[in-house]
Inverse folding.
């Protein structure tokens, strides 16, 4: 058995060493895969705050991922066609600046999470899953019918957006940027889980009645967690669109929501590094098994089944031998 | 007459044809332990739920510190100083004992919207939590996971969490249930001293504890208070003997 902290350190080492090796060996596609995993990890860390700490099983996180993606797509599309997003009541032009796009993605996905959260948190359990899923489908079909921005075909962006001081077209530089964001988000999630808010949210998952009895509002705690969670997943969506230089309604699909959840279940629900390990393993399986067979999801399904049946703590729990989730 | 800290005036609650509370009026005065006894199904838990705010009465009012709180949710009553312990422990089982106590202190502080500082290392929260754990004698278990505690220890932790709120009044639903006689005796001694700090509305089946502690007793039968009085008055009340205590009591 390996201690969980060593396992976390090993994960960071993989995130650092594999891309560096890829640079030396001149394997740019490996860097792209690692970037994909890093961005998926950010999305899943977002969901893990709602799901792992708050116990909110959201099957609608694709909404935020997609909003982030479309924030990037729409702003960059207008920038590359030299048109305005809005002309009235005030002129808003497109942009190719990543920091601006990220800010827009975070603000819009938090707003969406606030509205969806207020409505969904009136329910719990299966109903919560269903209502979040329904919101996801609403956004999915809206994006499909939004002809102005490509409808079903989505939007292609020809040149990756820029970040001050970096050449984002160089794979390793873009990866470095994504890794930097991932590490910041990890630190944030770690602080949050230890914070007074995290402690109260954690208790609101386990014993909501208790939380009320000490004078706190469990629903409000969960709502704030849902907004933070949506904001982080939205940020990941903008980055994902930039990685592919493409957005399509697929980002809003329920499969996307499911995949984000799968990352967490693979790695370990409620564990800080669970989403990171899950995203790395998922991308690796997608690459290798996907190369063997188009039906690689069968193997993924088997793996998930084994983990859910025999290792409730996810891969981290199985390797470190610690089943329980929280400190 | 001293003013009541906690008071119900004619509260009634029905579930369909079942009248779980019938026009119940009782109060809790400073410095006293007011016990509520009654056979199973008498409506004790329903009464407590209405006092604490998890159930709304069909009629009547609940007053806390002279203020009408009938329409306030449990959270607001807790902020106003109503501490509560549960019949079935409702603690965060995966968390440590200290974390559960800190949750109480956090609720009392009213400032849960802090996302970066460390809750367990927060000096004020920790001091309040440790003080409460010391008082109930759980200081050695502070780092244990709550799920690993014995039944009696969970009861102690329930009391400790309630104490972190610095309550003005306490409502305790069977704090002795499932405790050994040793633990029950210790808790009795503890509650005896606690009444000066916060008066206690005590629902309890353990008659030794009730007779040892209570300043007043109210007897609840079929949702109705059939008698209220001192221990001696209740012991000698004919209706109570017939309805509840049995002839040998």
């Amino acid at each position: 058995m390996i201690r969980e902290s060593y396992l976390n350190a090993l994960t960071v080492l993989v995130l650092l060493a594999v891309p560096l090796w890829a640079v030396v060996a001149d394997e740019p596609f490996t860097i792209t895969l690692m970037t994909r995993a890093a961005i998926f990890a950010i999305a899943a860390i977002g969901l893990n705050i709602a799901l792992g700490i708050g116990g909110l099983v959201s099957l609608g996180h694709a909404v935020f991922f997609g909003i982030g993606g479309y924030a990037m797509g729409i702003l960059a599309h207008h920038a590359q066609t030299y048109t305005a997003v809005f002309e009235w009541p005030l002129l808003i032009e497109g942009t190719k600046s990543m920091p601006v796009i990220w800010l827009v993605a975070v603000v819009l996905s938090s707003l969406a999470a606030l509205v969806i959260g207020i409505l969904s948190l009136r329910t719990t359990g299966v109903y919560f899953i269903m209502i979040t899923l329904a919101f996801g489908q609403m956004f999915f079909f809206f994006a499909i019918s939004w002809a102005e921005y490509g409808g079903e075909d989505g939007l292609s962006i020809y040149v990756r957006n820029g970040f001050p001081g970096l050449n984002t077209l160089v794979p390793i530089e873009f990866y470095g940027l994504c890794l930097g964001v991932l590490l910041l988000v990890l630190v944030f999630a770690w602080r949050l889980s230890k914070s007074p808010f995290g402690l109260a949210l954690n208790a609101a998952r386990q014993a909501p009645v208790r939380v009320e009895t000490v004078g706190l509002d469990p629903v409000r705690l969960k709502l704030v967690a849902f907004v933070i969670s949506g904001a982080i997943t939205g940020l990941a969506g903008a980055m994902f669109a930039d990685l592919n230089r493409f957005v399509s309604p697929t980002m809003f699909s329920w499969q996307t929501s499911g995949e984000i959840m799968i990352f967490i279940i693979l790695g370990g629900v409620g564990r800080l590094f669970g989403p990171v390990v899950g995203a790395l393993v998922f991308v690796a399986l997608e690459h290798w098994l996907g190369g063997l067979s188009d039906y690689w999801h069968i193997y993924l399904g088997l793996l998930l089944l084994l983990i859910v049946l025999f290792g409730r703590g996810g891969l981290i729990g199985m390797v470190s031998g610690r089943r329980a989730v929280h400190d | 007459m001293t003013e009541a800290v906690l008071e119900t005036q004619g509260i009634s609650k029905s579930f369909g044809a079942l009248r779980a509370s019938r026009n119940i009026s009782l109060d809790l005065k400073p410095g006293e332990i007011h016990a509520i006894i009654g056979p199973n199904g008498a409506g004790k838990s329903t009464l407590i739920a209405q006092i604490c705010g998890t159930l709304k009465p069909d009629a009547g009012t609940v007053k806390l510190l002279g203020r009408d709180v009938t329409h306030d949710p449990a959270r607001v009553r807790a902020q106003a100083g109503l501490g509560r312990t549960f019949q079935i422990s409702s603690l965060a089982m995966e968390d440590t004992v200290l974390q559960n106590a800190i949750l109480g202190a956090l609720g009392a502080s009213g400032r849960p919207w802090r996302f970066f500082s460390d809750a367990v290392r927060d000096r004020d929260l920790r001091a309040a939590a440790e003080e409460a754990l010391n008082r109930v004698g759980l200081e050695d278990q502070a780092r244990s996971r709550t799920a690993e505690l014995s039944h009696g220890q969970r009861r102690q932790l329930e009391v400790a969490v309630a104490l972190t709120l610095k309550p003005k009044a306490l409502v305790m639903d069977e704090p002795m249930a499932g405790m050994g006689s040793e633990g029950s005796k210790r808790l009795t001694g503890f509650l005896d001293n606690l009444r000066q700090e916060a008066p206690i509305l005590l629902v309890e089946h353990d008659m030794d504890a009730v007779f040892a502690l209570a300043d007043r007793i109210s007897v609840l039968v079929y949702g109705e208070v059939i008698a209220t009085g001192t221990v001696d008055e209740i012991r000698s009340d004919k209706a109570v003997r017939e309805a509840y205590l049995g002839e040998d009591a």
